[in-house]
Amino acid sequence: MNSFVHKTLVVQLLAPGTGRCPVLLHLGYDADDPFAVTAVFAHDGHVLACWRLDREMLSAGLSGPVGVGDVRLRPAGTGPWQELRMEFLGDARPGGGRHHAVVLVWAPAIAAFLLETHQVVPPGQERVPVDELLAEILSTG
User: Is the predicted pLDDT of residue 120 greater than 70, yes or no?
Assistant: First the structure.
């Protein structure tokens, strides 16, 4: 069985003054890191940002608001237009404040991606090889 899940989606970056701007979102899941989803945002062949998201948080964001730190998720819209609103807070700006990005993703596409990850590693069956990792660290020290 494949231990990787990849999906590329066209999503909408909310840009001040211009409305929605389409960008690519490359989602990745690796069973060797079962709690995380990698999200890479790209436009015109350039990586705009890369985030590691908690898989459970991504799932919870489809049904209600989650996140109090640098990543905040919540459902937006209804019916066939249901979207997941993803807000990202970045580094501090030179005049104060922080960089802030809002991305809207079609919620059923995220749900389908998560379903694929659940087929690789079901929720609650995630395993992190802590003993093996510690043994490796101690043996190289």
Answer: yes
